[in-house]
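Input.
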Amino acid sequence: MSAPPGWYVDPTTDGKQRYWDGTGWTEHFADNALPPPQPQSQLVSASHALSSVADKGTRPWWRRKRFMIPAAFVGVIAVGSAIAKPKPKSVSSASTTVVTRPSESPSSQASTVVAGAAAVAPTTTTPAPSTTAIKASTTAAPATTVKAATTVTPTPTLPGFASGTLRVNDQIAPGRYSATATSGCYWARLSGTSGQLDDVLSNNNATGHVIVDILPTDAAFQSARCGRFSIYAPPAAPAAVIKEGDWVVGEEIEPGTYETAATDRCYWARSKDATGDLLTIIANDNADGAATVTISAGEMFRSNRCGTWTKVG
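Output.
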């Protein structure tokens, strides 16, 4: 038998209609309570054709007309469902696709539809790989300029001492000291601390700038109203003028010839050092009126109540 799929009278049965899938009889029979639908095409086999005509002749025309139309319509739907190739069903275009297995033939698919047991292919969900790329920041962090802290170095306080009678090599160290004396300053190098005049090695009633050399052989040093004595430190450059006090020639004042319009009781002295010892005096004078003096480097020069000396040569 060569015919398209559909419902036909099976000659091997007692007039029942059976579904032909195009290649052979299936296990599906029409309900005996209702007349089977009109077949879509004539069977080539003569025996089938005669069976079909005989079957039609045994049924009233009104009965065939009443049930032929709906049954044929159902047959067309079944045939179309069996022939039509199923299309893949897309559950979600973004995530899931229903895959139809290509091994299934249209005939087996048609049989499944007629039987009412539809097979669903396994769903494979393939998550899309992340395509989000993290872009490295190309913005450079603002440079931070660290300003170097300005360190202010405090002026060191030179070792020294204040007023009083202090033991040399015990309370104070020997050396050259200087101070800015006020009016009424008195100092004395002592050979002892008995308080007698025989203990005085040298002394001075000083005003202005004061310099004194304390020797290691001195027993003590006494000062009053002179302010604080500090270790002597020469200035950066010597000056060309001389003011009240004691000065180191060549370090604090320039060597050369100086003059002043001296007042009454002006006293000046050139000495070998700043011990104040009378034996170290090179020259001195009690001037009245104008005065002139020449001093050399390495000497000590003392001016008392003479005003300001100006270098003239």
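The chain has a mean pLDDT of 74.
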